[in-house]
Predict the structure.
Amino acid sequence: MTHPHTRTYWLEHAWLDTHVEPGVAVEVADGRITAVRTDVPTPPPGAEILRGLTLPGLANAHSHAFHRALRGTVQVGSGTFWTWREVMYSVADRLTPETYHALARAVYAEMALAGVTSVGEFHYVHHAPGGARYADPNAMGEALIAAAADAGIRITLLDTAYLSSGFGQPPTAHQLRFSDGTAEAWAERCSVLKERDHARIGAAIHSVRAVPADQLETVARWAEERRAPLHVHLSEQTAENEACREAHGCTPTQLLALHGVLGPRTTGVHNTHLTAEDVSLIGGSGTGTCMCPTTERDLADGIGPAVALQNEGSPLCLGSDSHAVIDLLEEARAMELDERLRTRTRGHWTAAALLRAASADGHAALGWQEAGAIEEGGLADLTTVALDSVRTAGPLPRLGAETAVFAASAADVRHTVVGGRHVVRDGAHTLVPDVPQALAQAVDALRG
C-alpha cells in the first residue's frame, strides 16, 4: 500500500471517541496520523476537505467474500441454514484464483464504498475442486490479498482449517477443496503466506464440527507462536451444539476451552446459542465476540447474548459475513435493535459503544490495534458520513454519532481514506471505476 508523504485533512466534524468535535485538522505522513488539531474552524491552505462526520475507518471483522455471489439468489423460497449451505457450495465449486480475485476485488471495493478500511477474510476455499493443489498452494489466499490491495483496503487473511464434514466424518465432495487433510498440513501451507503493508495473516478454525478435537491445539499453537488473531465459528446452530454434546459430552465452547483455543487473541464468530457457563468461559478468557446481525437474521440463526458476553468481559466487534448487505452502520444498529426486540427494552449500547464495535474493537480483533481511533500515531484510516442526506439531515451535528448509527446507511458514506490515501472520494471509488459493473460481471462469471 503506497502512502502519500505528507497531507492534511480538514474534518468538518470528527468523532473523537467520546464526542463530536467541529473543525479538526488531521496531519498525515507515511500512512499515519502525525497530529490532530481541534478548533480549526476553516480548512488550512491545501487541506483535503471531508464534509460530514468523520469516523475512524470501519472494520468488517468477518467476511466470506464469495458469498456476495449469493445475494438475492438465496432469497427464493424458504429453507434453513443447511439448505442455504447447499447453494453456497455450488458457488464455491466454480471459484478459480482468477474468478475469485475478480469477485473479491469488487466486493472489497463495495466495502470501501461502505466506509470499511479493514476486512477479516475467513478463508477456507484453498484448493481446486476435488482437492487438487494449485501450483501455488496458496493461490486462492494470494488472490484475496491482491484483491484487497486493488480495492485499496487492509485485509487480515484468516486462513481457515476445515478438515471434516462433521464429528468423525470425512469431507464431502464439495468440501474436499477446503481441506488440507490434517492440521499439520494446514499449518505447513499457511506458514508460507507472507504479511504485506496492507495484509496480515491470522488463523481460523472453521468450527468444532470441521476440525477434529485432537487437532484443535495445532491450530491454536500456530496462532499463539505468531501472536496472530484466531477466529472460529462458534455455536451458530443448535444442531452443531447437539452433535458436539453427542460426540464429546460438552458444548463447543467447553471443547474449545479444553483444547486451549480461547483467549484474548481469539474471536468467536456468532456465539449465538450459548449456556451461562459458555458465556463465562468466553468472557472470563477475554475471547472476543463477532456479531453478524444481518446474516444471523437472514439465515434465521437467532439472536446471540451480546450484552451478557460483553458484561462478562468479551469485546464485541461486527461483520457482514455472507454479505446479504454490506453496511457496518446497519450491523451496529441491528445489534442494538435485535436486543431491543428480544428484551423489549431500549438502550443496551450507546452510539459511541456501537461505533467502537464497528471500528476500534474490530480492528483489534483483526490484529490492527493501531487503527480505529483518530489520534496521533494511529493509522490514517478515516470514514466520512454525510450529515445532509435525506436520511441524516436535521439532527444537530453534535448528535452525529447517534445519526450515523441509527439513521445513516452505507449509501451515506462520502469519503474513505486508508493509510492517508483517498480510496473513496465524494462517494466514488478512486481505484475501481465502476463497482456495480465489476460486481455484476464477477457474479455472472460464477453462474452455473
In short: The mean pLDDT is 95.
